[in-house]
From TrEMBL:
Subcellular location: Golgi apparatus membrane
CC annotations in GO: Golgi membrane
Species of provenance: Castilleja foliolosa
Protein name per its UniProtKB record: Exostosin GT47 domain-containing protein
Keywords: Glycosyltransferase, Golgi apparatus, Signal-anchor, Transferase, Transmembrane
Amino acid sequence: MPKSINRTIICLSICIPLLVGSLLLAGTLDYRSRFLSFIPNFSKSTLPCRTGSPPLRVYMYDLPPRLNVGLIDPSFPDGTPVTAKNIPAWRWNDGLRKQHSVEYWLMASLLYEGNDESGSSREAVRVGDPEYADVFFVPFFSSLSFNVHVRHMAEVNTVDEKLQLEMVNILKASDYWKRSGGRDHVIPMHHPNAFRHYRDEVNASIFIVADFGRIMNISRLAKDVVGPYPHMVESYISDDQEDPYKSRETLLFFRGRTKRKDEGIIRAQLYKMLNGTKDVIYEEAFASEEGFKASAEQMRSSKFCLHPAGDTPSSCRLFDAIVSHCVPVIISDRIELPYESEIDYKEFSIFFSVNEALKPGYLINELRGVPKEKWIKMWSRIKNISHHFEFQYPPKSEDAVNMIWRQVKHKVPSVKLAVHRSRRLKIPDWWR
């Protein structure tokens, strides 16, 4: 009897695996659903692109409208709270003022009461109780104040200066400013001359800047956020040419002012070198509605778009190129770029130092040597990331405003560390 049982067990141990194997080979047994349903599926295709995290909780100061939307619409009642329903729409024909309108879009995104248009959660939400805030947003339109109230840099006692002082006094009277020394406050200063009289009194805060050209002595990449310029040309929506490389007949395009200060003096030098070169357009021009339309057409028909420094290392020209799907050629030794913790600009841009760009023939020879396959790859990458540079209301997932808030969120841990240390240290930063 025991021998027969042993034989039966041995037979089953051989036959059952053979039976299962034959069913698997025949495709009649769904082993995933029947036998492995308890094992999580870690396939790449089922994982989200981003794991997601709670939105940044932002407390926004309730400021008098004269410090923000009143600069857009002087008729806006100064004692009326700004809401999603009464915030003035941005006037898209405001020309150069549009370039530094980041402050407006950040404020509008916090006033908006719904999810973004794609249905996804936003990167930042407004909270009414400051005790629950991760950061404090200061909706002072310092860039617009400069553009509206300052005609000449030598002017003294301007309305802009008075508004800056009023803003500083409001902050210094705030318990939340006192508690952190302003470290957890977010202040837009996108124009290089924004908040210029009292900048050093708020320099512990997180600045939203275009670059560090004129605030190198008080601003730091470790705490501040580089925001893109709102683009001046219309986005290229229907860029679906069968052969985009062939359809873009101009090799290199630049249109703008050639006489600039500081690092921007390279523009005049490049003009002498490149003007008249075959397949290159390098034109002197001033900002105008007609000029933006002409630039849009030229960018869409050019393989490369030149981005030399202006009065500061950056300008809206870079972002005009991106939304035109024209591969940027960036010439600067000191430029800092938006979202660089998430985006690799080398995938869709070409960089030259100032010295390299001024070598006779070097820049053009390098561009002519870029293979078609590489250019197509860069062009495709630009198309995939250009939505990150769109400012809009209501906001949309992954647009410029959401990307900026996400960059702010990356700063929060180091801000908290600095705040907590400052509260207990008897000798601040003793280790330096």
